[in-house]
Amino acid sequence: MKFNKSKAKHRLDKLFSNYIHNREHETCQMCGKKTGRMNTSHNISRSCLALRWHDLNASLLCYRCHTHFWHSNPLIGAKWFVDKYGQERINYLIKESELPYTFTEAEYLRLLIKYEK
Description:
Number of strands: 2
Strand content: 5-15%
Radius of gyration: 15 Å
């Protein structure tokens, strides 16, 4: 079977989101809410392929925190992020996001295996 990068990305997005939901125990990391719609929130945009499925680049946020704080009031979101995870994590993510990166078929398959567990 021929490798399909588009299908692999779509599958990885679903698996990664499930991984974050399970890791965070379906709890909003900003307000502590445990019910309602939860979103996997990327700190550096998903368009940055190097960090799209990196577990340090995502948190689980309820719909309200994700839209009201993370997207609509980014300075409040940034302050929360530094308070919760530290400046070192931001520095690491920014550094990684600036590196040119292209996934090989083997790397897609490695990530699929990692997040299917």
